[in-house]
Every structure is written in C-alpha cells, then in structure tokens.
Amino acid sequence: xxxxxxxxxxxxxxxxEVGAAVESVPTSEPDPVPEPAPEAESVSDAESAERxxxxxxxxxxxxxxxxxxxxxxGLFTRRKLDDEALEELEDLLITADLGVATAAQVxxxxxxxxxxxxxxxDEIKATLAEEITRILEPVAKPMVIDPARxxxxxxxxxxxxxxxxxxxxxxxxxxKDAGLRVTLAxxxxxxxxxxxxxxxxxxxxxxxxxxxDTGADAAGLAYDALTESRGRGDDxxxxxxxxxxxxxxxLMAELSKIVxxxxxxxxxxPHAVLLVLDATVGQNAHSQVEIFRDMVAVTGLVLTKLDGxxxxxxxxxxxxxxxxxxxxxxxxxxxxxLRPFEAETFARSLVGLE
Length: 354
Ligand SMILES: Nc1nc2c(ncn2[C@@H]2O[C@H](COP(=O)(O)OP(=O)(O)OP(=O)(O)O)[C@@H](O)[C@H]2O)c(=O)[nH]1
Ligand SMILES: [Mg+2]
Known about the structure:
The protein is an alpha/beta fold. It is built from 12 helices and 10 strands.
C-alpha cells in the first residue's frame, strides 16, 4: 500500500473514537498548532491538487533555488566551461548545501560531457537537474504500509522541533482520509504540551490518541498503545517520541526500551522507524542521521520545513551519503503540506526550472 493515495478506501468497520485513553493534565501552554488553512483546492480533483502541490513546492524552495539560479546565472552568461568555471560552480553547489561529494560528482560529470564547450545558464541548470534527479531517484520511495500488519507500527524519531508531531498529524490525516484506521500514541511523555499538540492533530484527523500523564514511562505507554490498537484491528499506529538529544545516553535508552516493549506485543514491530529532519539545519542533518541510526534502525526519512529555507540542497547530499529512503517532505504546517517525495519535481524546483 502506497503512501498518500488520492483515492479513498472506506473501512468496513465504523470510525474509531476520537479522544484520549487516559487524560493528561497540561502543566504548561500547549505548543501552537496551526489552524487548518481554508481548502484551496478540491482533493477529489487530483490534477488541480497536483498543480497546487508543485506550486507550493516551488514557492517553498524559492530561497534554495534563487541561490542556485542567481549563482548559475552570474557564472554562465555564455561562457566556456573551463577549469575556473567548474571550480566556481562546485563552490556554488557546496554553499547551496548539496555537499562536497555531490558537488564534485556533478562538476565531474559536466567536465566529462561539456568541457571546453560554450554553455549557458539554462543548459547548466538542466544538466544539474538531471544529475540531481539521478541521485535522488533511488531514495524517492513511498512508505509502504503492509496491510497484513494490524497495525503497521511506525515509530517516529528526531531531535526537538524537527517536526515529528506535526508530521505524524499530517500522515495520520492523509491515511485516515484514504480510509485506514489510524491511532496515535503520545510517546513524548516529557511535556504536557507535546501531548496536547498530538491531541489537536488527533481531533483534526479523526484519529484516536493514546496518552498518559506527563512524566509517565514512554515504553509502557507504547506497549499499551500497541495492545489497544491491535485489539481494535487498526491499520496503522504512529508512536511519537521525545527528541531530547541533550542527553544522548538517556534518549538511546528510552528509544531502545520503547522498541523492546512493543516487540513484546508484536515481535515484528516497529515496521518502520521514521527519522524526521528539519531541512533548515543544513549539513547538521548529516550528524543527526548518524546519531539516530546508531540508536535505532532508521528505515526512512521525512524532511520538513523545505518551505522558505535556502538549505533544500541538503536533501541531495543526504541521499548521496546515506541512501536512506526519503518518504515525504514537508513544505508547510498544514496537513496538505506533507507530500510524497518525487525526485524530478524536487530537482527541477531546486534549480529553479519549470
Ligand atoms: N514551515 C514549516 N513548519 C513546520 C513544518 N513541519 C513542522 N513545522 C513547525 O515546526 C514546529 C515544530 O514542529 P513539531 O512537530 O512540534 O516538532 P517536534 O519534532 O514534535 O518537536 P518536539 O516535540 O519539541 O521534539 C511547529 O511550529 C510546526 O508547526 C514544515 O514542513 N514547514
Ligand atoms: Mg513533538
């Protein structure tokens, strides 16, 4: 089953109940949860939805693409592709967060195919988009949900503020709208605000949220959530987690404990471990992947906040370096702003091509 079908599949059984299994008492203000934007397009009209999405991606990546577009425009106003031009292009790609290895690879390819020829900015952009597409294609994979798992358990990890809870909310809404039975587990028991934030998304998406009091054992909550979700035959269970990297040993211990306790209910779980990365941190995302990969078996990435960051190129260097599947990207705070990751669309938007 692919992620984010536009088609709808209705469940045979009734709608799951909305609400929390155990009420939590907020001790601080909940995190702001953006209000849904008025519907700008009809989801049933797949074509217009698709156009709207590409528009959002393009406007989202404006900062990234203008950096590249202006840089390339300045470099190549009909000029011979010589060593100096190649070196300048390589530097430009590095500053656009494509990473040293990717920048070297792209310039090497250009040197091989076009060295000594007159080249214009558009030609460079087109070649760049093709090369980036080639790098991104192997990682552009939807998150596959195994219908045999009841539920398919998705553990969501990442540092504070990377967009875990928001991404879960968006994924929940998408899958619920596609007809799946989805439950959310508020595994970030550290802050009351985090639980409240997930509950808002639960209400918005019509998915039950399983939560406990602040400070409760996250592994125990995950165990109960999977037991409950399994009992009602859910298709999907998302487990939110706290991302306190300040204390890596504690975080690792907590994540391992969550994994061990859900395995007691279903030894094949978790079926996916999504690492949510904030694209605005640029190359820092690399060390986050390394850290989390050492803690849990990360199966895929979601890159958030690609709207309005000049660091969208980091996705290319992540693909090159780690080869982890990129399932989706976030280009805004609303449910409709999480979209499947498409290599060519992204590559062309990144270099500012239509
Ligand atoms: N512009 C934009 N904002 C986003 C995106 N994804 C998440 N956010 C915002 O980023 C902020 C942090 O998101 P959260 O979902 O709370 O992050 P988190 O990883 O759960 O954070 P902790 O619970 O503190 O660990 C919120 O204000 C979100 O609305 C995105 O794709 N674009
Ligand atoms: Mg959170």
